[in-house]
Amino acid sequence: MKLLIGLVAILVIIYISSLNWRRTLKALFALLIIEGAVRKWVLPQASDMIYFLKDFVLLGAYISYYGSSASARRLPIKNDPITMIIFLVAAWCLFQAFNPSLGSPMVGFFGMRGYLFYLPLMWIIPTLFQSEEELYKFLRSHLLFLVPVCLLGIAQFFAPASSPLNVYAPGEVTSAATFGVTSSVRVTGTFSYISGYSVYLLVCFSLLIPLLASSQYKWWKLASVIEIFLLTVNSFMTGARGLIIGEVLFLFGYLFFLAFTRPISTVRFLRQLLPLAIVVAIVAPIWFRPAINAFWLRTTSNQDVSGRIVGSFTQPFEFIKYKELDGYGTGATHQAAPALKKALGLPSGEVIPTYYESEMGRVILELGPVGFFLWYGLRVSIIIALWLVFWKLKRAFLRHLALAAFIIQVIQINGQLVFNHTFSIYYWFLSSFIFLLPRLEQVENWHREQQLLQEDVSSTYFPDSPYQ
């Protein structure tokens, strides 16, 4: 009976999600933020089901979008290098899903989700927004979630580790990570774990910078300033050194490339950024000194960051020796694979004889050297395509977004993507800028041409009109 009820609920969710794919995709990003809160506090007993809720919602949007021939024609899948690599990656992941080392292809099909399930967003998102203004309003609204989420993070930091606020999914109270002399909690906001929250903060930081550099009404400019202040404070409260390093690298990279291509825009942006930086530098140490002290102690007492960064790049070469030209199969290193095998009574499969943590190492263990070079070849190709888009665009806001997407993908090249669904959704959203931003620039140029044409007609037939 429980299985039947669950199946009916899944079908209802897919059906509702398929009614309006545009609304569903926009709601998906809100769901991504609140999913962890539901898993931790609202329905901890259904934590696993809630984890897959966004997948069912997205599946409904896929069915609606690709089920409509009119929708499919809006952005045809072109025979370009990126598309070719995508199909090669998909074929290799499917091939490795039947790897005997997995014990069962069911594990392989589940593992393919991390590589391929969110990828179609790259082709659908470009048809979601019809104008530059619509994209701006979506980003502006999405970033407003930072305010309640970061306020919750502050409350978590000052609450004891045993507080109900400081739980992981599914409602585990005793495992909250701490840092600093006072054993302050490493905050997670509304997310299930620290890793998801860190990725969310980094992506939001990369989107806030272009908004700060663009022209906004005073109210929204103030909102952006508040958001980036709260985001900065929460970044220290996570205790995630990689997050702070990523934000610093992003900001310096953003300023460097902007100065390289648009020196005047860089000076204008620095004038806007300098007062904000001064306020953050003065206020944050006064109001949130415990967070900064705890982060500083964690950074100075445990100096393993450089080793972990270097290790993330060297692990693939070390792990080749275990399977040589083969791998253990798609999904072999996924954290949910043991639970899936146990729940379905599947064979245990071959044991991987090493400890793995970095995603690069895990990818080569799963897909082998061929799959590794295909997967990271795809990611490098997307980075190059984003750079070319940034170089070609003329409209300031769209250029800034392309630059932000380019930099975030460069600094996260060795980060968790396959095994972090939060970043996976944001990653393919940012990758869609390859197609979305040039399309929006064409739309805006067309509107501008029509406006100029109407003005020419008006001045020709009504030369004395006061509305010229």
From TrEMBL:
Transmembrane stretches, start-end: 80-98, 110-129, 141-159, 191-212, 219-237, 243-261, 273-292, 372-390, 397-419, 425-440
Q: Which InterPro entries match?
A: WaaL-like
The record's keywords, sorted A to Z, are: Membrane, Transmembrane, Transmembrane helix
Query: Origin, by domain of life?
Result: Bacteria
Instruction: State whether keyword Transmembrane applies.
Output: yes
Question: PANTHER family in the record, alphabetically?
Answer: LIPOPOLYSACCHARIDE BIOSYNTHESIS PROTEIN PA4999-RELATED, TEICHURONIC ACID BIOSYNTHESIS PROTEIN TUAE
Q: This chain belongs to which protein, by name?
A: Uncharacterized protein
> Which lineage is the organism of this entry classified under, starting from the top rank?
Bacteria, Bacillati, Cyanobacteriota, Cyanophyceae, Coleofasciculales
